[in-house]
Specification:
- This protein has 98 residues and is of the alpha+beta class.
- The chain has a single domain, classed as 60s Ribosomal Protein L30, Chain: A (2-Layer Sandwich), CATH 3.30.1330.
- The protein is 55% helix and 14% strand.
- It contains 5 helices and 4 strands; from the N terminus they run H-E-H-E-H-E-H-E-H.
- The protein has helices spanning 2-13, 21-30, 44-57, 67-73, 87-97, and strands at 17-19, 35-38, 61-63, 81-84.
- Strands 1-4-2-3 form a 4-stranded mixed beta sheet, sandwiched between helices.
- Helix 2 runs parallel beside helix 3 (44-57).
- The chain is globular.
- The relative contact order is 0.28.
Length: 98
Amino acid sequence: MNKLLNALGLAMRAGKVVSGEEFVIREVRAGKAKLVVLAKDAAKNTEKKLTDKCQSYQVPLIRFGTRQELGKAIGKAERVVIAVTDPGFAKMIRQLAQ
């Protein structure tokens, strides 16, 4: 779990992370998002919207951590959803999540 948060922080410092619901949806639609990380304490409406969007655009989605943990990992305030735009970071984070 800690390694996954560290990997998110590393991706953020590399400029390969987008956070915030509207920004993430825009990246998914544009085909730039390689992985979406959704906080376990996300609202049901947000969860459904992102799950449906990721399924229709075939972007992997993982449920992980709380909004506080995700925000802290990328050095920002609470974040419910994060998109990783780099295929290498996305692969590494998916492997750590298993």
